[in-house]
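[job 0412] stage=complex_fold ligand=adenosine monophosphate status=START
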Amino acid sequence: MKILVAVKRVVDYNVKVRVKSDASGVDIANVKMSMNPFDEIAIEEAVRLREKGFATEVIAVSCGVTQCQETLRTAMAIGADRAILVETAVELQPLAVAKLLKALLDKEQPGLVILGKQAIDDDCNQTGQMLAALAGLPQATFASKVEIAEGKALVTREIDGGSETLSLAMPAVITADLRLNEPRYVTLPNIMKAKKKTMDVFKPEDLGVNVTPRIKTLKVSDPPKRNAGIKVPDVATLVAKLKNEAKVI
Ligand code: AMP
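[job 0412] stage=complex_fold status=DONE, emitting structure tokens
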């Protein structure tokens, strides 16, 4: 069985992003970019399933600008066998990515597709769900454990106040949550090996997908600034302020 894993190139989680002066988005010029952390977990899980003998091949897919190649090389250094870049300079929204992944699913016929539960740049949490709907496949989102048994995927999901275990017929779509695993460190020999692995490049047109954005961002703004704190002389003043000024008690 093949496993297809979607990996997105995003602004590194350590970077404090700045809103552009025209409020059209955040400034990503000269900013460190990395693999979306949930996608690292998705790749790690796929590689572990292959190492356990449940999968024969792990294919990493990224959609976006040419530099996504770096993200794909990292995925192959973690252990993906090959990669596919769907190259476009168009700003991709979740529906467009889901359509591209659906086209690749038809081409590659994987037994599992693993995505991150959400991308840390847009926080959409939509692509996996949209892909499952477009492909008519069962889905398990927010996975914290994945097992394969008797041709089914047993997925434990993080839900409010506990967990839930689903049995999915394969092929299926899974999205990875934080506690699914801890991705391995990428070693230098594996980075070198990854350079020799195959990377196919397609354009959205090659896959018959129209990726024109369907949602327009009207405005991006910073969260409101916090006012400076003050010191109060005693508990009575604190209580009075909480009651009369903050009106929280
Ligand atoms: P989102 O719905 O944007 O929060 O993204 C959820 C997941 O979809 C991510 O964690 C990735 O696994 C996948 N994904 C989203 N956008 C892309 C992209 N441009 N290329 C590859 N995978 C993507």
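Residues 6-8, 36, 38-39, 42, 61-64, 92, 94, 97, 115-116, 118-119, 122, 124-128 surround adenosine monophosphate (CB under 6 Å).
[job 0412] exit 0
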